[in-house]
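Researcher: We plan to redesign the surface later, but first we want a full-length starting point. Tokens attached.
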């Protein structure tokens, strides 16, 4: 245990030194920006660690939950669009919402009709018919509303509420989406769950990208408000420092709550389900229900992190969400840091993001000096696209890091501690 503590302290100390070198090299404004973005990704990594590290659920659709959380933050915190509210569009959208509410209620009741003696095949048929009918009626009601909004007001705008409410709402709708998806997919095997969540993430992105009436699509929405004074008001360093304090406080709160939950009887039950699902079922545990809890909780945290990340960027662009940046990079953070260990997830997020951001300028410097040496020593003309090649080095450096860590620390740099009970 002491050796592990010393090793962890050494890793954290080394990371602090690396971050200090980045500040010295790139300046305080750049370093603070890197830390804020890394802290938002650390929140997302904590949410993914709940799913993968705690419950063994392979969520390959993190991007979708980040995007829906970001949309929720934009919808709540962006200023009100008076042109939209002064038109007939709100009434048309309310009519569509009423159709969805009634149709969804009927569909839900029909899905439970087998409890009242309806045969399962008939129940399934009736549920599918009700769901399809609701979708078609809602789509028919949306079309005139969307056309009116796009022609008159551009998009619906926001509600102009405090940013922290937007972050909370982003987490709530990400959790609600996770509940809906989990009810369908958590009975699947892990590989099928990964495929399903990956597909759903792309569906969410496509919806946000094409719903011009709600998100302006590829035209983007900006500037998004901050929970602290912006750089235009107090300067880059002060604004980013204040934002970093907010995200750091969020990390501390989430970390403490997760640690307390993981050390409780609930956490012991989740470890039992993760390690031996059949044994947990044999003693009466509802495995699918507990997995659904973890899936919803994890994606709620992911939604909050996505909302914080998009608010800091100041622009909501549905096209900007990509699987490599918003799914697989987060997976790498959790795996390299140590899945099942919250401190490892935070450490992995900071380390991987520092490597991700600094590999391009470091590679560009190496290419510059290498090209100068080759030209002077062998009269070889360097290629003209060195900046582009340096950008591509990000993936190479991250891949090399993965190989080295998995070779020498297969359980992650700060692995989960094995709990022993007497």
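Model: Full-length starting sequence:
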């Amino acid at each position: 245990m002491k050796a592990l503590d010393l090793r962890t302290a050494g890793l954290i100390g080394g990371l602090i030194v690396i971050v200090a070198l980045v500040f010295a090299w790139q300046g305080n404004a750049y370093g603070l920006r890197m830390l804020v973005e890394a802290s938002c990704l650390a929140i997302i990594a904590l949410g993914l660690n709940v799913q993968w590290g705690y419950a063994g659920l392979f969520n390959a659709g993190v991007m979708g939950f980040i995007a829906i959380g970001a949309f929720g933050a934009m919808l709540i915190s962006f200023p009100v669009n008076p042109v939209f509210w002064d038109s007939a569009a709100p009434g048309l959208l309310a009519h569509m919402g009423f159709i969805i509410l009634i149709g969804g209620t009927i569909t839900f009741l029909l899905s439970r009709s087998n409890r009242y003696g309806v045969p399962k095949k008939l129940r399934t048929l009736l549920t599918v018919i009700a769901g399809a009918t609701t979708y078609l009626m809602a789509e028919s009601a949306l079309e005139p509303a969307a056309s009116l909004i796009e022609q008159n007001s551009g998009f619906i705008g926001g509600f102009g509420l405090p940013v922290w409410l937007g972050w909370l709402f982003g987490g709530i709708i990400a959790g609600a989406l996770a509940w809906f998806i989990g009810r369908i997919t958590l009975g699947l095997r892990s590989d099928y769950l990964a495929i399903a969540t990956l597909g759903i993430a792309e569906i969410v992105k496509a919806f946000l990208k094409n719903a011009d009436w709600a998100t302006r699509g590829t035209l983007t929405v900006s500037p998004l408000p901050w929970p602290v004074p912006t750089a235009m008001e107090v300067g880059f360093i002060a604004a980013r420092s204040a934002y970093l304090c907010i995200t750091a406080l969020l990390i501390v709160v989430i970390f403490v709550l997760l640690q307390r939950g993981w050390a409780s009887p609930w956490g012991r039950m989740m470890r039992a389900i993760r390690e031996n699902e059949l044994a947990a079922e044999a003693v009466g545990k509802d495995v699918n229900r507990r997995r659904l809890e973890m899936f919803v909780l994890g994606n709620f945290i992911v939604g909050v992190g996505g909302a914080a990340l998009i608010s800091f960027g100041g622009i909501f662009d549905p096209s900007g969400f990509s699987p490599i940046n918003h799914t697989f990079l987060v997976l790498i953070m959790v795996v390299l840091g140590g899945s099942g260990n919250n401190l490892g997830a935070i450490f992995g997020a900071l380390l991987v993001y520092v490597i991700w951001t600094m590999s391009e300028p470091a590679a560009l410097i190496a290419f510059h000096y290498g090209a100068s040496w080759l030209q002077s020593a062998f009269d070889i003309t360097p290629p003209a696209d060195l900046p582009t090649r340096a950008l591509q080095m990000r993936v190479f450096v991250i891949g090399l890091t993965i190989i080295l860590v998995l070779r020498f620390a297969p359980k992650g740099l700060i692995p989960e501690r094995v709990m022993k009970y007497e």
